[in-house]
Each structure stands twice: as C-alpha cells, then as structure tokens.
Design goal:
The protein is mostly helical. Helix content is 72%, strand content 0%. The N terminus is likely disordered.
Length: 231
C-alpha cells in the first residue's frame, strides 16, 4: 500500500495476530479494539526506530541539499540508507524493510542525478500513490480487496476469505480507506513536486509508513473480531 506496502503485514505486532491452532498466547495480550491496537503498535520503541530509519534518508537528502548541493546530498542519503541496513543486521533483525529502503534510495538517487534536480529524488515516490490506487481499485473490482490478499495469512483467516461476507466487508472498507489516503497523498505529491518543495515531499514520504502501519493494525483487529463472531 506504500513503497513498502508488501512488508506491512510482517510488521504487525505478534500480539495483534491471530493465534495459530494449538497456540498458547494469552488473549488479553491482544488488543480488542482498533484504538487499543493503535496504542499497542506505537507503544513499541522499535516501531518508532523503524519509522526514523525509514524517514532518515529523505530527510538527510533535504538537509544535505540545503547545506551543500545535490550530489553531496545524494551521497549522504545513500550512506544513511546503508547505515539503516547495518543497524538491522547488527541487531539481528529482519533486514527486509531496510533492503527495500536501500533499493528505493538507489532509484531515487539515480533519478535525481539524471535530472540534476533535487525534486527528482522524490519523483518515484510521487508516482507510487497512483499505482497503489489502481491496484487497490483492481482488487476491489475482482472482489479480492488488497488488504485481504496481504493480511489474510497474518490474521489466520480462511483461504476463501473473499467468500465470507463479513471478512470481505472489512477488507473492502480497509482497501477503500487505503485508496482515500493515496488520493490525498497523490494530490500533495503533485502540488509540491510541481513547486519543487522537497521539505514537504520528504515529510509526506515519511508519513505514509506510520499511516499505513496504523491502518494495518486496525484492520487486523477488525478481521479478528469478525472471525470470532463467525465461530
């Protein structure tokens, strides 16, 4: 649902996931409401560290461009992205999100270098909302809302979740919400890319991760409650 949308499901806190058959996880550790899920998600310091590591390359690029020039800023952003990957490796954490981050920064840096403009660094992120809108809309038309495709396995839903009216409704609402968020994001990207305002573009890029992580947390709880009612 974002440039790292495919990784959102794996970032959901374990206590927000459905307990597998035979699991002994205490039910009281799992949030029972959307608000509780949001609080639990953002009460974890590792979540905030992840957000900072994801946002750091863009913010460093903007700062470097303001203080020095385009090419030193590109180098600084690349070094920051690699440092984030190194942090995860040293902590023996999953490097997937950082690897994606390094790839994204590499592409953004290449575009900025080719165009010779600082705003070029944000050209690819500016195009992502449009792609996500199309993907979300296509999955809704196909009666397989995107959040269901991404999160069903995480939540322990049935393989034919799309045939269950309640589950399909939850994922339809969640995917529709994702479309709405991306429409707003696309408008912001178009306006401020046209103005060359890299500060706003960096902030908008950094904000998408937390917004969609919150949407995932709420969706997981809604799906779990729906599954409970159906049992």
């Amino acid at each position: 649902m974002t440039d790292r949308g495919a990784l959102l499901a794996s970032d959901v806190p374990l206590s927000s996931r459905a307990v597998p058959p035979g699991g002994q996880e205490a039910s009281h550790a799992r949030p029972q409401t959307g608000w509780a899920a949001v609080r639990q998600t953002w009460s974890d310091p590792r979540r905030w560290i992840g957000v900072l590591l994801a946002a750091a390359p863009s913010l460093v690029f903007v700062a470097g461009n303001a203080v020095a020039s385009l090419y030193p800023a590109i180098i600084a952003a690349a070094v920051t992205a690699v440092a984030g990957l190194g942090y995860h490796l040293v902590r023996r954490q999953s490097p997937r999100s950082s690897l994606v981050g390094v790839l994204v920064v590499a592409v953004c840096a290449a575009v900025a270098a080719i165009t010779g403009q600082a705003r070029g660094f944000f050209l690819v992120p500016a195009m992502i909302p449009f792609a996500v809108i199309l993907i979300c809309a296509a999955t809704i038309v196909a009666r397989r809302p995107l959040t269901g495709l991404i999160l069903n396995r995480v939540t322990g839903g049935p393989a034919d979740w799309y045939r269950h009216r309640g589950l399909r409704r939850v994922h339809l609402i969640a995917t529709g919400t994702a479309i709405g968020i991306n429409v707003v994001n696309a408008i912001v990207q178009v306006i401020f890319y046209g103005r060359g305002d890299t500060v706003v573009l960096a902030v908008a890029h950094a904000a998408t991760g937390p917004i969609f992580a919150t949407l995932v947390a709420v969706t997981v709880v809604a799906v779990r409650r729906t599954l409970t009612r159906q049992r």
